[in-house]
Design a protein that fits this description.
six-stranded antiparallel β-sheet; about 325 residues
Length: about 325
């Protein structure tokens, strides 16, 4: 009898070559569907303290109108909370008829650092998606580092605020979710030095001439906060350009274990949601379900306060891209 513990040839420990694949006894909570060509026991083990949170299929739009509109207030509020990377846990939700806001579901911010407002508009017609003419948009994220971005098109001004550990380096990169995509990045070092770089695959890449103006660089309670401004258009193609009408910006952020830029201690891909501030609204539109294997999301850890537990509540993002057969068979087998 031949045994293949990887099931590469659709065999198990009970059958020989050419026999039908049999997974054997499986627990009730196995996600393997009936007749699957893989064993549910080969699924990645996941403690009950960890939950998978997938990104919503809904999308944010800053121009035009939704092709697929949300039809109920409940769906609107759920989609907005799932879609936003700007903190929406304490968002104000309301509904009514308002022709000054987009029809259906929209989100906005009262002020650059104010609460998020989610509004379901029952009016049949309304304003276009996005900010009012000459309006400001902005958003923030809280990951291994934290950052907020405010974009004022009328003044040609982007304001970037980055926060991280005061003694160690931290950085944020714009327009990409992996270093190999060579994003424009801002690095804050433990001595307060701020530099800009064009990153490379697993490499600090190349140092760039400064394009940001540092407005303030302060340290409070072990956290460094750096406020910077710059023009919307990048100095060259090596810099990121902030564009009007864009609802989301893919980003990366990382922190190190020392004051000088070196290999990161922790990193995360994130998506920055940009919302109109003080007027208008970004439309929350129904989206088509993502193809199997292309879902992004995060793993959320919830501690249970048991004796000896070392974990703390937090998230780790994932955005895996499964290669097609024959390199892998996860897509072919629809293996969750």
């Amino acid at each position: 009898m031949q045994i293949d513990t990887w099931n590469r040839d659709k065999m198990d420990c009970l059958h020989g070559d050419g026999e039908p694949f049999v997974a054997g006894p499986l627990p009730k909570n196995s996600w393997a569907p009936p007749g699957a060509a893989y064993s549910g026991l080969l699924e990645c083990p996941l403690t009950t303290r960890v939950s998978k949170v997938y990104e919503s299929d809904a999308t944010l739009e800053m121009t035009g109108s939704c092709k697929l509109e949300t039809t109920t207030a409940a769906e609107c509020f759920a989609n907005a909370h799932a879609t936003l990377t700007t903190a929406a846990d304490a968002a104000k939700t309301s509904s009514g008829s308002d022709p000054t806001k987009p029809a259906g579901c929209s989100v906005s911010k009262v002020s650059p650092h104010g609460d998020v407002e989610i509004f379901f508009n029952t009016a049949k017609t309304g304003a276009a998606c996005g900010a009012t003419k000459g309006g400001v948009v902005g958003g923030s994220f809280d990951s291994v580092a934290s950052a907020s971005v405010s974009i004022d098109s009328a003044k040609d001004l982007a304001t970037i605020t980055a926060t991280g550990p005061s003694a160690d380096w931290f950085g944020i990169g714009f327009g990409a979710q992996a270093m190999k995509q060579q994003p424009w990045a801002i690095i804050m070092e433990g001595d307060g030095k701020v530099t800009e770089r064009k990153l490379a695959d697993q490499s600090p890449g190349s140092l760039l001439p400064s394009s940001v103006t540092v407005v303030s660089n302060t340290v409070t309670d072990g956290k460094r906060t750096v406020v910077m401004t710059r023009a919307l258009k990048g100095k060259t193609s090596e810099y990121f350009t902030f564009q009007e009408g864009v609802a989301t910006i893919p980003m990366i952020n990382a922190v190190g274990s020392g004051p000088k830029l070196a290999f990161h201690k922790a990193k995360n891909p994130v998506t920055l949601s940009l919302l109109p501030i003080g007027g208008g609204g970004a439309c929350v539109c129904e989206g088509k379900p993502a193809p199997f294997g292309s879902k992004k999301g995060k793993l959320h850890y919830t501690p249970t306060n048991q004796t000896g537990e070392k974990g703390v509540e937090g998230d780790v993002s994932f955005g895996n891209s499964c290669a097609p057969a024959p390199r892998t068979v996860l897509l072919e087998q629809q293996n969750p």
